[in-house]
Write a structure and sequence with these properties.
The structure holds 2 protein chains of 2 kinds. Chain A is α+β, with helices and mostly antiparallel strands. Chain A is built from 5 helices and 5 strands; from the N terminus they run ββαβββαααα. Chain A is globular and about 45 Å long. Chain B has 3 domains: 43 residues; 107 residues, 2-Layer Sandwich (Uridine Diphospho-n-acetylenolpyruvylglucosamine Reductase, domain 3), CATH 3.30.465.10; 94 residues, 2-Layer Sandwich (Enolase-like, domain 1), CATH 3.30.390.50. In chain B, the strands form 4 sheets. A 5-stranded antiparallel beta sheet of chain B has the order 4-5-10-6-7. Chain B has a 4-stranded antiparallel beta sheet with strand order 11-12-13-14, sandwiched between helices. At the A-B interface, β4 and α3 of A face α2 and α6 of B. Bound molecules: flavin-adenine dinucleotide (FAD) and FE2/S2 (inorganic) cluster (2 copies). The site of one FE2/S2 (inorganic) cluster has 10 residues of chain A, from loops.
Amino acid sequence: MSVVKMKLNGKAVSGDVEARTLLVDFIRQYQGMTGTHVGCDTSQCGACVVHVNGKAIKSCTTLAVACEGAEVTTVEGLAKGGDLHAMQAAFKEHHGLQCGFCTPGMIMSAIDIVKRNGKNVSEDVIRRELSGNICRCTGYHNIVKAVQAGAANM
Amino acid sequence: MENFNYHRPATVLAAAAMLKKSKDGKYMGGGHTLLPTMKQGLASPTDIIDLTAIKNFGGIKLSKTMVTIKAGTTHMEVATSKEIKKAIPALAEMAGKIGGVHVRHKGTIGGSIANADPAADYPSACLGLGATIETNKRKIEADKFFTGMFETALKAGEIITAVHFPIPKKSAHQKFPNPASRYALTGVFLSQDAKGKVRVGVTGAAASAFRATDIEAALAKDFSAKSASSVKIAAKGLMSDMHATAAYRAHLVSVLAGRAVAAAK
Ligand SMILES: Cc1cc2nc3c(=O)[nH]c(=O)nc-3n(C[C@H](O)[C@H](O)[C@H](O)COP(=O)(O)OP(=O)(O)OC[C@H]3O[C@@H](n4cnc5c(N)ncnc54)[C@H](O)[C@@H]3O)c2cc1C
Ligand code: FES
Ligand code: FES
């Protein structure tokens, strides 16, 4: 076991973890933040996406110990007080979810897409860049609509 | 996933020493092959030696004739590099088609090549461009590097430090992705150098990436899409699985090579 320290949603946190502890388990089990989901065993679904040092990554395929000193943002870190982040609001407005299991990962990926491609990101780029996020419910149309609307308001 | 000892060396020398000292250690680049494999219980190293904290382990350098990509460079960095887009646009394009965004943010060129997955994209670019793979010990030509399924010319403990890609006159990458995994069901990387020499690297079709020498010969005579796509590739020896038969993959090789010629720039 060794102590790992990082910044989680702006707050300094630490935990005594095993080397094999995944970042997603550190977030969910050590920090009690269950917004980040685990949808697969194969690094394919994207339900676990968080930002580490500003980049969208899969927290199920990242070691907690490797995030020593990192800045980590999860879906819980987006809203300011009672105000949803523009991307969260757009998912609500455009019905970009049904069961909601994929939604935290979708939103974290969506914000990363806008950061890299700008507010006017095209539907084509959104669809291509969401390829690492799987949704079992919606059929993606409303997710893409939500991302485009959210992008414009970011 | 079994537990292990985690190390984060600051130099290549220290990393090599740590691996030597470990019972059954593994290097880790982006961890996007190693960790999924460990989660499946298919690997359980005693030690993980994380290469990502090594100074100057990543980065892109250009000369008039060569693009050098250091081992720790991520797929995203290659895909978005202005210099690579200008010098070898097909290489940046190929890196941009690896997995999804999250995989590209973490996966590295060194890890991809060391792993030599039969469906990985970089091996086709290494063969298709005639790259040289540099390690902490020596330089290895791509033609001699990929020796079998997940097998390479690397010796135990050897660390890839950089890959050197000669800048061709024209090149193109064509990939038929497996729609679920995004890996190449079959992929073709083609280049033509200033002297007219053509190289065609193929991935996803056989146990190991290979050069389609029949297509290269046809293109040496007539560099046209039709000339490439009319070469019949033998299905014997190619992979057959739930995703595609060997015959389907053989067909894809010439179809994709034809498209690559048409797209080459
Ligand atoms: C969902 C998903 C989709 C993917 N899709 C694709 C795809 O479409 N195309 C594709 O090509 N790949 C794909 N990949 C694989 C991805 O590109 C991997 O990141 C890459 O193959 C391995 O790179 P890595 O840096 O993550 O290596 P790691 O997983 O860290 O290491 C892989 C192996 O290489 C060794 N190694 C690592 N670095 C070095 C080094 N410098 N020197 C010597 N040995 C080293 C390790 O010990 C290990 O055995 C996908 C992966 C995932 C999870
Ligand atoms: S939980 Fe499925 S990709 Fe991370
Ligand atoms: S809303 Fe159910 S998985 Fe996407």
